[in-house]
Amino acid sequence: MPQTIAFTVNGRAVNVIAPHDDTPLLDVLRNHLRLTGTRFGCGLEQCGCCIVLIDGKSVKSCRRSLASVAGCSVTTIEGLGTPEKSHPLQQAFLEEQAGQCGYCLSGILISAKALLDRNPSPSRAEIARALDDNICRCGAHNRILRAVEKAAARLREGARP
Amino acid sequence: MTLPSVLADNPRLDRWLNFATPGKVELATGRVELGQGVLTAMTQIAAEELDVAFERIAIRSGDTDRTPNEGYTAGSQSMQAGGIALRAACAETRALFLDAAAQRLGCAATELSVHDGRILHNGAATQFDYWSLAQFVSLAREATGTAAHKPVADYTIVGRNAARVDLPAKLYGKATFVHDMVLEGMAHARVVRQPNRGATLDPIDEAAIRRAARGPISFVRDGNFLAIVGDDETTVEVAAAAAADHSRWSGVERPSALQQEANWLLQRPSIDRVIGAPESDSARGLQSYEAVFTRGHLAHASIAPSCALALYRDGHLTVWTHCQGVYPLRAALSRMLKLDPAAISVRHVQGPGCYGHNGADDAAADAAVIALRLPGRPIRVRWRRQEEFAFEPVSPAMVVKVRATLDAAGHPVDWTTEIWSGTHQGRPGGGASLLAAEALPDPPPVPAPIDVPEAAGGGATRNGEPLYDIDAKRIIHHLVPEVPRRTSALRSLGAMPNVFALESFIDELAERAQQDPIAYRLARLSDPRARRVIERAAAMANWMANCGESERNANRGQAQRGKGVGFAQYKNRAAYAAVVVELEVEESIRLLRAWCAADAGLVVNPDAVINQLEGGIIQSASWVLKEQVRFDTASGGPIDWETYPVLRFSEVPEIAIELVASDSDTPLGVGEATAGPTAAAIGNAVSRALGVRVRDLPLTRERIMAKLLAL
After folding, report:
1. Which among B560, B558, B579 has a CA at the least distance from the CA of B568?
2. Less Cβ crowding at N or C end of chain A, within 10 Å?
3. Distance (Å, rounded) from C-alpha B616 to C-alpha B672?
4. Whether A68 and A9 share a structural domain
5. Which of chain A's residues have a Cβ under 8 Å away from the Cβ of B237?
6. Is the complex ipTM higher than 0.90?
7. What is the mean pLDDT of residues B537-566?
8. Domain of A103, in residue numbers
């Protein structure tokens, strides 16, 4: 029997009945909750496009079973900020024009948030290492690194996420 | 005045813009957004030429029902060809409106100007604007090219940074990509791919696949085309993963390890041509030198596999795709499906960066084939990661042999570039077939072997001719028709291996002449724009203060540091770029810094141009350090990011870029300009760091170690 799994997404309580035993969290987010900002890149936990926060930790969602998030708090890119109320990371990415095709950006923004939450003053090398789980194929790396540094500085100065 | 060629192909002005909505300009371009910022740049061009605020313009792109046919968004042509066509269309439209206003005001059009869409008479407001005049000015007419565009000196929007219009949606997780599209009643589909043209599918065990799926699925089968379709994506994905074990193919051909390295091409039949001048008289009796460079096959390796949606309803097929050319794809679909092109609409929706011809067209063909067999049902096909790696067309392996005859000062007077390569032209618009067409009954014949013509910049021959002043230069081109994998266009086509070869060899010749590589280049380079970018890049990198040899550590085994330079004008007709790279080599290469100076002619959006040049440097660095489609692995080819590694964040060098000012009124394409120079700069820096030259790409640890051990 398919189980109902209860968890929260971006602060909202959801109950999901997975139509399939193998349904990963990513498919639930994209197809069932219509949160398509989290993206499928490889389905192999190798590229980072599908990274979300689960209880504050960055996790690849493409193979994460739905059952494993029961009772957890999930944050996706849609929960990071909005055009009206940008997260400092999103604002900094805009200012640095950090991105090209943009397919990787949701995962990168979430990875960066997880990093800044645990280390508010990362060095450039620490940011790069934290983002080594994310592939950017267009070559926007340096802009992205600059944007994360900028957001980190603003958050340290008291900018509100 | 002659019309820009793209405008001559699409002369109707109302195909480009209209003022149907008060206060708004609806703009159309045939170029599509690939993450390069083309929609922003086109909007800037129109805002500038029409004198309306940037924000008033809504742009649509890549739609066979509603936008001009500009072929492919490729070849760094969007600004150089498409941008100037749009500029001319807007200039003529503005002139038509000024004429209409002048008539009504009883004045000369020269007394009128436009401010944010409002017509001014000698600087004073009139009752007219574009929108009130629109009823009197029909744009259902052909452009004549009689209106001059605004003088560059008057530009206030073009040439200044504009924030990319496509970026905010990507930062807030809005549905942006074709992958994110959801249509009412949509079914998900996966294709069980024919391993190669001619392979035949034996009866499949449908029951076993259904059992593995553990959910409702159905099959679409026609000839050797097999697809699995269902409401739930996970179920369909699980079924597709299981299908390999329950379907058998006959006539399967797989690339062998022997075909992996480019040198394999030298033994194959080829179609041969010589382009260029016969041997120069000045070369008679002088000494010649040669060197051979190779590069393996490269994958586009887009960050996500291809995806497309299709709906066939009431006799009309609509396809949503991230391909680079909606019109060529429509023509190819029409041939494959035997449908009138008028019964097909192809719409571009953004996708993951493609850098050329990846699986996008084929995924669209898959969706179309399935949709035609399930009328009324929107079909979404998303390729699997391993499917993209295994079936995307790859960039062909190349062998480039360079031979130069030197004068007494050690400079070349005669030059030959001899190239062996598969084709770089596998696009469906060029006569090649879509994968689905090969699997369906009655597949089209194998296309005749052709490469991109020199008039379009050449494929394997692209940048095969050095820009240096040499009495006689020629290219010998061996097009190898039968290669182990389907090959097609990847960013810069043959220019990357060619510039790697040419600019590496120039460094070797400089060394032979005991001259500084930069001074050696400048001694035989009369094009002032070329000289400027090289001089600028050298200055940025503090070249003279820090010149190679002296830095080499005496102790073997320690990290060695070196700088190298590479230069090219892309296609010998687009942007000029010089790149200097500084790196460290121990057993493998660590990139430290890169400096680039580029002349892109008229720059529309400087920051977007820098972004493109920067991206090109990083992608080329990834190709040079890491990338090759290998056939000698357990999987027989790349299937994921472990079997096809690319550069990661920690491995990227710091990059400084300067745009060299130009008074030109013509943009020069930049998207591919740094690919070749970066490859050469890395090769040259490695050579200067180690004192040995590795002429085969990628510059892997194994190759570097082999060279060092041979010392």
Report:
1. B579
2. N
3. 6
4. yes
5. 43
6. yes
7. 75
8. 88-156
